[in-house]
Design goal:
Blueprint lengths: L5 E10 L5 H11 L3 E7 L2 E8 L1 H13 L6 E10 L7 E3 L20 H7 L43 H7 L21 E4 L5 E3 L12 H11 L4 E4 L4 E6 L3 H11 L7 E4 L2 H7 L4 H8 L5 E5 L34 E6 L3 H7 L11 E5 L11 H7 L6 E5 L11 E5 L2 E6 L8 E13 L9 E10 L9 H18 L5 E5 L5 H8 L6 E4 L1 H12 L8 E11 L5 E9 L4 E7 L2 E4 L2 H5 L1 H11 L9 H5 L2 H13 L3 E4 L2 H11 L11 H11 L11 E3 L5 E4 L1 H12 L4 H23 L5 E5 L6 H13 L4 E2 L11 H11 L1
Parallel strand pairs: 2-5, 8-14, 10-12, 11-15, 17-19, 19-20, 21-28, 23-27, 28-29
Antiparallel strand pairs: 1-3, 1-4, 2-3, 6-7, 6-14, 8-9, 9-13, 10-13, 11-12, 15-16, 17-18, 21-22, 22-23, 24-25, 26-27
Length: 791
C-alpha cells in the first residue's frame, strides 16, 4: 500500500562522517518503521526515506535536534522524490557524487564504554590497545581522503575478522559501521624495542613472538627505572618519563634541548589530576571531554611536611603528589591531560598490573622547534638520541597532530593551541569568502582554507624556522584542501616581507593573486569573526603581542585600531623604543630593559638589575646603537615591555623559551597584593595616532626596585597598570556602544585578560575575546581569510 506515503531525499551536511551517523540514521529509521537507504558521499550523508508524512517529519526532527554525540549537523535539505515501495532500510555503498563537501571529524578520546570493555576480563577486547567504537577513536589522523570509509584510511591495512565484520554490519551493535573497528585477532599490533635493540613482542608489521602484554610490561619497567620512552600515539610520538623522578625529567630536558620550557604531564584519571593541580568544574569538563586537551592548571600546594625522598613521592590519589622540580621550573601552573587512548590507559596499568608511575611527563616526540615525529622509521632516526625504548604499533599515522592546549579564565575556556580533538572542525564565517588559502604567520603556525561561509584551520604546525616545518606545512595545506574540497583561487599571507610563510605563499601562488594583511588587523578580524560580527561592523581593537610588521617598517605590538574586516585605522600605539639586534633582544630581556630606560631618559645605574645583568662591552655597544640608530628597529611591542619590566624587577634577564620572562612575571603577580601605590601610563593625544608613553611606568618600577619592593609586588602593580591602560584606551577611543575587541599573544596572560575584561565590562563596554581560537598567532589565519575576503 502506498496511499498516504511519501519518499524524501535528505542531504545532511556537517561533521557527519566518522561519528556514527549512518548507524544512527539506520536505527532511527527502524524505530519509525521507515524504508530507504543512507550513504556517505562528498557532500555529506545522503538519505532516501519513505513512509508516513508524520513519521518522515519526526525523522528529520531527530536528525536536527538529537544527532549522535560527536556529530555537528550544519544543514538538512529535503526534496520530494518518487515512491519506490519496498520494506527495510539499508546502508548503501559510499559514492563520490554530489559536488558538495562534507566535514571530517577530529580524533576523539576513548569513550567510557570502551574504557570499561578494555578493563573487563570477560570482554574479547580486554587489554586491546586499539579498542574503539562509533563514539571514539582516531579519525583525522588516519583519513587519506573523503568520503570517510575504511578503505580510505590507514585501517585498510587490517582486513576485518569475521567477528568484527559481524559487529560492523549489526545495526544493534555499538560498532555498527565504525570504520576503525578492530580486535586482537585482526587489528594493529603493539611492539616494544628496548635499549639494547632487542624486541619484546612485535614491532612494525611482524607477528608476535611473546605474550601480548609483554611490550607494555617492558615499557612500564623502563619508566619505573627512570628511562625515557617513545610512545606512538594517535597523532605522533610522545616522549614519556616518570614525572616524580628528577633525574629522569632532567635527562629528558637535556636531551630534548628544552631549556626551562615546562613539560606537560599525563595522568590516568581525574583523581590523580586533582592530586597535582587545582581542578574546578570547568577544568574537569575539559579534562574528561572528548577532546582531552592539555589544560593549564594551578599547581596543588604541597603540605609543609611533604617528604623529599623519592620513595615517598607516590602517594594516595587524595594526597598531593610531589612532582620533580624540572617538570615546570619556576612556574605555578602545570599542563595536565588525561590519558586519551586505550594504549595510554594500558601504559598506566590495569588492575593486576605492576603499575607505571602515576604521573608521566608526556611531551612531543621531537627536538625543540622541530615538527612532531609520526612516521616509524623517521622516529627511530630522529629520536634515537632522545629515547631509551620505543612502544610502537603498525597502524600508520597519515596526518601528524599535536596535543591541544587550553586554559580557563573566569570559568571560560581560552584556547592556546588548537590541534588534536578540534582540528579540522570548521568555523563559520560571518561573511562569505571566495576559495582561499591563508598561510598564517611564522610563530605557532596554522594554515586555513575557506570558501563560502566555512573556514577550516589546520592542526598546529609550529614555528616556521626550519626545513622540516616547511615540509610539514606543505603536507598540512595539501591535506586540508583534499579533505575539504576547497581549491584556492587566492592566497593570503602576513604583510611581513621576510616571513617564511609569506615567502611560501608567493612561491606557491602559481599565478594566483597573493593578498597580504597587516598582522594586528588579522588578530582583530579573527576575534570579530569568532563572535559572528557582520561585514559592516566595526570595533575598537586592542592588539597586544610581541611582533607584527607595521606598514611604516616598525615592529608593532601595542596597538589600538578602529577596525572592520575591510580595513583599519591606527588610533594609538605604545611609544617606539629601539629594538637592537632583532631576536637577540627577544632572548635577552635585559636589552629591552635598557632600551626602555634609554627612551625614558633614565640613567643606566649599576644598581638597576637589568644594567648589572648586561656585560660592560655589550652595554657600550647598545649605548652606541641606541644613540645612532645603527642596527635598531623601532618597536611598539607590549610583549617586549613585559620582558623589560620582568628584567627591571630582577625576575628574568635571559629566556629559554618564548614569553618566559612575562610568564614568570605573571606568576609572581598572581600571588601578590599591589598595595596602595599604582603605576600609570602617559597618553599623548597631540600626536596622530596617539602615543602611549611607558616612561612613567618604567621609572616607577626602577624606583620601587631601588627601594627594595619585592618583585612580586612590582609585578602586580605592573599588571594593574596595563589593565587600567586598556580601560583608559577604551574610554578615549571607543565611543559606546562600540565593541572592544582584545587579541594578541599578551592576552594569553590570564591575570591581565581577567582584569581587563572585568574593568571594561564594569564600565559599560561590550567586550569580545577569544573562546574558540588562540589569541596568539595560532588563530591568525582565520583573521587573514576574513580581512582578505572582505577587501
Amino acid at each position: 500500500m502506498t496511499a498516504g506515503r511519501q519518499r524524501r531525499r535528505l542531504v545532511v551536511r556537517g561533521v557527519v562522517q566518522g561519528v556514527g551517523f549512518r548507524p544512527f540514521v539506520y536505527t532511527t529509521a527502524a524505530e519509525l518503521s521507515l524504508s530507504g537507504s543512507v550513504a556517505n558521499d562528498s557532500s555529506g550523508v545522503i538519505i532516501e526515506i519513505e513512509g508516513a508524512p508524520a513519521d518522515l517529519d519526526e525523522f528529520a526532527r531527530r536528525l536536527r535536534e538529537h544527532p549522535p554525540p560527536l556529530a555537528v549537523v550544519e544543514s538538512v535539505e529535503q526534496t520530494p522524490v518518487a515512491l519506490h515501495g519496498g520494506t527495510g532500510f539499508r546502508i548503501a555503498d559510499t559514492t563520490r557524487d554530489g559536488g558538495g563537501r562534507t566535514l571530517a571529524s577530529p580524533d576523539v578520546a576513548i569513550c567510557a564504554d570502551c574504557a570499561t570493555e578494555l578493563a573487563d576480563p570477560t570482554d574479547r577486547r580486554y587489554r586491546h590497545p586499539f579498542i574503539n567504537c562509533t563514539n571514539c577513536g582516531p579519525r583525522f589522523t588516519i583519513i587519506a581522503e573523503l568520503p570517510y570509509d575504511r578503505s580510505r584510511t590507514s585501517m585498510a591495512d587490517f582486513p576485518m575478522c569475521d567477528r568484527c565484520a559481524a559487529e560492523y554490519t549489526d545495526s544493534t551493535d555499538r560498532r555498527f559501521h565504525a570504520q576503525p573497528i578492530a580486535c586482537p585477532d585482526c587489528g594493529p599490533r603493539l611492539g616494544y624495542l628496548g635499549p639494547a635493540g632487542s624486541p619484546a613482542g612485535t614491532h612494525g608489521t611482524a607477528h608476535p613472538t611473546t605474550g601480548p602484554d609483554e611490550p607494555l610490561d617492558s615499557a612500564r619497567n623502563l619508566l619505573r627505572d627512570g628511562g625515557i620512552l617513545a610512545v606512538k600515539g594517535i597523532g605522533g610520538y610522545h616522549l614519556a618519563c616518570d614525572a616524580t623522578n628528577e633525574r629522569a625529567v632532567a635527562t629528558l630536558r637535556g636531551r630534548k634541548r628544552r631549556g626551562d620550557k615546562p613539560f606537560a604531564v599525563m595522568v590516568p584519571d581525574l583523581a590523580t589530576a586533582r592530586a597535582i593541580a587545582e581542578v574546578d568544574d570547568t577544568a574537569a569538563v575539559l579534562l574528561t571531554g572528548p577532546q582531552r586537551p592539555i589544560v593549564l592548571l594551578a599547581r596543588r600546594p604541597l603540605p609543609a611536611t611533604a617528604a623529599s625522598d623519592a620513595d615517598s613521592r607516590v602517594v594516595c590519589d587524595r594526597d598531593p603528589i610531589d612532582l620533580a622540580p624540572s617538570v615546570a621550573p619556576r612556574n605555578p601552573d602545570l599542563g595536565v591531560m588525561l590519558a586519551y587512548t586505550p594504549l595510554h590507559l594500558l601504559l598506566f596499568g590495569l588492575s593486576g598490573d605492576r603499575p607505571a608511575p602515576r604521573v608521566l611527563v608526556m611531551t612531543s616526540g621531537n627536538l625543540g622547534g622541530e615538527p612532531i615525529c609520526f612516521d616509524d622509521s623517521d622516529a627511530r632516526t630522529r629520536l634515537a638520541e632522545l629515547a631509551d625504548g620505543w612502544l610502537s604499533h603498525d597502524r600508520r599515522i597519515l596526518t601528524p597532530c599535536d596535543d591541544s592546549v587550553v586554559r580557563v579564565v573566569d570559568g571560560i575556556e581560552l584556547p592556546l593551541r588548537r590541534s588534536r580533538g578540534y582540528a579540522p572542525l570548521p568555523l563559520t564565517l560571518p561573511v562569505p569568502v571566495p576559495p582561499m588559502l591563508a598561510v598564517g604567520a611564522d610563530m605557532k603556525n596554522t594554515c586555513a582554507v575557506g570558501e563560502g561561509r566555512y573556514a577550516w584551520l589546520s592542526q598546529h604546525i609550529g614555528d616556521m624556522d626550519d626545513l622540516a616545518t616547511l615540509r610539514a606545512f606543505d603536507s598540512a595545506a595539501e591535506h586540508l584542501a583534499e579533505l575539504t574540497g576547497v581549491r584556492p583561487t587566492q592566497l593570503v599571507a602576513d604583510a611581513h616581507p621576510r616571513y617564511r610563510s609569506t615567502t611560501w605563499a608567493r612561491t606557491h601562488a602559481a599565478g594566483r593573486p597573493v593578498h597580504t594583511v597587516q598582522h594586528h588587523h588579522a588578530h582583530i578580524a579573527a576575534v570579530m569573526g569568532e563572535h559572528g560580527l557582520g561585514a559592516s561592523d566595526t570595533v575598537t581593537g586592542i592588539a597586544f603581542d610581541g611582533t607584527g610588521f607595521g606598514p611604516d617598517g616598525a615592529i608593532w605590538g601595542g596597538e589600538v585600531l578602529a577596525a572592520g574586516y575591510k580595513g583599519y585605522r591606527r588610533l594609538a600605539h605604545l611609544q617606539y623604543v629601539p629594538l637592537a639586534g632583532g631576536d637577540v633582544s627577544v632572548h635577552r630581556p635585559y636589552r629591552m630593559a635598557l632600551a626602555h630606560l634609554w627612551s625614558a631618559g633614565l640613567d643606566w645605574s649599576d644598581t638597576i638589575a637589568s644594567v648589572a645583568a648586561c656585560p660592560d662591552d655589550e652595554r657600550a655597544v647598545l649605548a652606541h646603537q641606541f644613540g645612532s640608530g645603527f642596527g635598531c628597529t623601532p618597536t611598539s611591542s607590549m610583549g617586549r615591555l613585559f620582558d623589560a619590566v620582568s628584567s627591571l624587577a630582577g625576575v628574568r634577564h635571559i629566556v629559554d623559551y618564548e614569553a618566559q620572562a612575562a610568564i614568570e612575571l605573571e606568576a609572581l603577580a598572581r600571588a601578590a597584593d599591589p598595595g596602595s601605590r599604582s603605576y600609570r601610563f602617559g597618553l599623548d593625544h597631540t600626536a596622530d595616532p596617539a602615543v602611549i608613553d611607558p616612561a612613567p611606568v618604567v621609572a616607577a618600577v626602577v624606583t620601587d626596585a631601588d627601594h627594595g619592593v619585592p618583585a612580586a609586588v612590582i609585578a602586580a602593580r605592573f599588571h594593574h597598570a596595563v589593565a587600567a591602560l586598556v580601560l583608559d584606551l577604551a574610554l578615549d577611543f571607543a565611543p559606546r556602544p562600540t565593541t572592544v575587541a582584545l587579541s594578541g599573544g599578551v592576552f594569553q596572560n590570564a591575570l591581565l585578560l581577567s582584569a581587563a575584561r572585568t574593568t571594561l565590562r564594569d564600565n559599560g563596554f561590550h567586550v569580545i575575546t577569544h573562546r574558540r581560537l588562540p589569541p596568539n598567532d595560532g588563530g591568525l589565519a582565520f583573521g587573514q581569510l576574513l580581512a582578505a575576503g572582505a577587501g
